[in-house]
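== Polypeptide entry ==
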Amino acid sequence: MLLSADLWVSALLRRVSQAGSFAYIARRGDKSYGSVLVKVLNLRTRDLYVLREAQKGEETVWMRPVETLNEADLDAWIARQAKYDPDIWVVEIEDAEGRHFLTETVE
């Protein structure tokens, strides 16, 4: 069984906090079924991670849909996705080492 989006986001925020970094919900989506985007910022890099839709029996995988160091480009991509899917969540993580704190596979 999959976790609800709000519970999953809460767990991510806790992992980030326990590691001494900062994260916040930049956009709150549907509590149960919203997709989650994770934006990671540090002094040198910007990354965005999107959960790939997993088929039954497949591993959960996070992907980078945009390869850029420009935060404005990431924000524009997120805004386009929000128009398409108003239920998405956006979590922003600020970490000096650029860690994403995702426990699933990242491609």
Notes: The CA atoms of residues 35 and 92 lie 14 Å apart. Strands lie at 22-27, 36-41, 46-51, 61-63, 89-94, 105-106. Helices lie at 5-18, 71-84. The first strand starts at residue 22 and ends at 27.
